[in-house]
Write the structure tokens for this entry.
Amino acid sequence: MLPTAIGQNVDVTVLRAGSLVVDPPVVLAPMAGVTNRAFRRLCREQGAGLYVSEMVTSRALVERHEATLDMVRFDPDESPRSVQLYGVDPHIVGEAVRMVVDEDLADHVDLNFGCPVPKVTRKGGGSALPWKRDLFADIVTSAVTAADGRVPVTVKMRKGIDDDHLTYREAGRVARDAGVAWVALHGRTTRQMYSGKADWSAIARLVEDLDGFPVLGNGDIFSAQDALDMVAQTGCAGVVVGRGCLGRPWLFGQLAAAFAGDEIPADPDLPYVIATFRRHAELLIDGFGEYTGSREIRKHVAWYFKGYAVKRQVRQGLANVSSLAEVDDWLGQIDPDQPADEDVMAAPRGRTGGERPPSLPEGWLDSPFLDPESAACVREAELSVSGG
């Protein structure tokens, strides 16, 4: 039992799925354009856990699109290798999982039923899909059958479409009975996107519903203490970290210390942040070439330097770099001898914004079962989502 800073006690166990062992029970959430090989390496160097690839479209994988195949290439020393698949067709998802297993592309497959973005949900995919309970069951069953026990299959999902159309409790039971290794629940609905507070009580209800089956919690973990609090309040078997690690790969070292019962390291000073940003840029350029790598690091500028007084022209310069030499030039203009603004640092990272009406196929909510019209729409869903 681990004492937390507010006097709680936390039960911590190793997360196991067949031969896969996740210790500490910490999972990096797939994030499009972020959780590529470079970022996963930075996170792995900080602490152990499970670091999942960007979301990969099942159809694009089966059809061997080059950009998609590149997304499921891992560093030679990356272990375990984890890939998240997105799909809406049970047969295609099954074929994708079989390909992953037969060709030894990964050691773990996660199924995406949590993406709330309109281009995915308007065709019935992502977090909209569990509403069609028969389709959800068929996809999960097809994936588990194709894996044939050779790699664990897991599910990541949201509470539901909105408060009037919750799906997580039924979907959790279906996934468990289909043979997945665990389910991860983000405590928000599609309508909420990333707004407001995640509903950790929903995670606790699912833990109680599934009675001993592993449930991972996701939503509003911006510090190691947040992770301990979530485990204490919900009884979840582990945590999934998304926006909280943007510009902060060292969060995984803090999480490892927290789950080991050790003192949680303080956030690093600005020179360390600068050095980590520079290494991130170098890894991206080494892995994807100077043209692509330079453009990939641009999106990380605001996350790394959140809470610091970095001049506007320096931020703009870093957001337009085209080489590692330019990165070095702009980083050299940052005053490293300054503290962070703690209030700014404590604010949520990444996407925020307000709620928005879910984008759904016409008539999607009329029935929780797939009808011919909805089935025709869903068949187009994977075609509207590129390799990630």
